[in-house]
Specification:
This protein is of the alpha/beta class. Helices cover about 40% and strands about 15% of the residues. It contains ten helices and eleven strands. The structure holds NADPH dihydro-nicotinamide-adenine-dinucleotide phosphate and 5,10-Methenyltetrahydrofolate.
Length: about 300
């Protein structure tokens, strides 16, 4: 394999270490303990894995973790009432409602009900609008983590051609905005785009966030390009065991790329670490304090 493996697990641990140190400092100097409320509606197995991981990391960082588990048949009104309570609870600085929600609940209405100052997912239209217009707000965790992974290899992204596969509100679109803000030339690809291999081969930076296992092949990669694989696809082997693979055919791509993130162990851990970083930022802003310096601790 020629590509440098960008180790998201190691970078996430370094970021988590910085967040924990800043959190301890806040406690000591301000008596402030950041609190994150995670709301899970129903019992989707994957969501339960992610929510457990988020809660564990929150506690490890020295923050307060508030768990809210609601039954699958919870009405939209009851969920909105809980969110209203969390919005006004001074011990809660971040509110995350785990997606997907059960079909009878409108996610746009639920996300719109979260106080933008506590929207640590960065999904609220106010935060999406602030990002789109270059104003300070809360940035979605996965794209934020992807930018930190890119900085492990590129001190300056100016002028590079970035191709983003996917245009969702939670990954593709904010990802494109962040790359644009770093002066990349950005192409956003989606299901109606034509000649994906040709488009991908133009990329110095390729971010795959489509949810299609191994869609991106090795010959779609420009030699030396940096590949960030956001995809998390749970596939079942013939023997019945499940495994995670990304949107990129890792082995083929690694033989061509200059650097690549693995799945698992790449973007996923960064999403969680950035959630904690957003909670710390939100708590500082709510206390009228300057944003903390979240430069990840130096690597080993
Ligand atoms: N690691 C992490 O922390 C996270 C990982 N993920 C993973 O990232 C992936 C994307 O998630 P999410 O953004 O929510 O996905 P969505 O399903 O919301 O969006 C998928 C996007 O990919 C596009 N797309 C789908 N198929 C193709 C195709 N064949 N060619 C080109 N474009 C295509 C869609 O196009 P169109 O708009 O035209 O429909 C859409 O824009 C998933 O695998 C998800 O599991 C997501 C969040 C966090
Ligand atoms: N309100 C909301 N915010 C989210 O940020 C959100 C969400 N809902 N719904 C689901 C997606 C998905 N997501 C992941 C987080 C961590 C890993 C992660 O840590 N993955 C590990 C593997 C974990 C495993 O073993 O499954 C890895 O990639 O190394 C993956 C996916 C956040 N999401």
């Amino acid at each position: 394999m020629t590509a440098q493996r960008i180790d998201g697990k190691a970078l996430a641990a370094r970021l988590q270490e910085t967040v924990a140190a800043r959190t301890a400092g806040l406690g000591a100097t301000q008596g402030l303990r950041p609190g994150l409320a995670v709301v899970l509606v129903g019992s989707d197995p994957a969501s339960q894995v992610y929510v457990r991981s988020k809660r564990r990391r929150t506690a490890e960082a020295g923050m307060q973790s508030f768990a809210h588990e609601l039954p699958e048949d919870t009405g939209e009104a009851a969920l909105l009432e809980l969110i209203a309570r969390l919005n006004t609870d001074p011990a809660v600085h971040g509110v995350l409602v785990q997606l997907p929600l059960p079909a009878h609940i409108d996610p746009m209405r639920v996300l719109a009900a979260i106080d933008p100052a506590k929207d640590v997912d960065g999904f609220h239209v106010v935060n999406a609008g602030r990002l789109a217009t270059g104003q300070p707000g809360l940035v979605p965790c996965t794209p934020l983590g992807c930018m930190m992974l890119l900085r492990e290899r590129h001190a300056d992204l100016s002028g590079l051609h970035a191709v983003v596969l996917g245009r969702s509100n939670i990954v593709g679109k904010p990802m494109a905005q962040l790359l644009l803000a770093e002066n990349c030339t950005v192409t956003v690809v989606h299901s109606r785009s034509r000649d994906l291999p040709m488009l991908c081969r133009q990329a110095d930076i390729l971010v795959a966030a489509v949810g299609r296992p191994e869609l991106v092949r090795g010959d779609w990669i420009r030699p030396g390009a940096t590949v960030i694989d956001v995809g998390i696809n749970r596939v079942v082997r013939p023997d019945g065991t499940a495994r995670l693979i990304g949107d990129v055919a890792f082995d083929e791509a690694a033989a061509v790329a200059g650097a690549i993130t693995p799945v698992p162990g790449g973007v996923g851990p960064m999403t969680i670490a950035c959630l904690l970083a957003n909670t710390l930022i939100a708590s500082c802003r709510q206390a009228g304090l300057p944003d903390p310096d979240l430069t990840p601790a130096p690597g080993a």
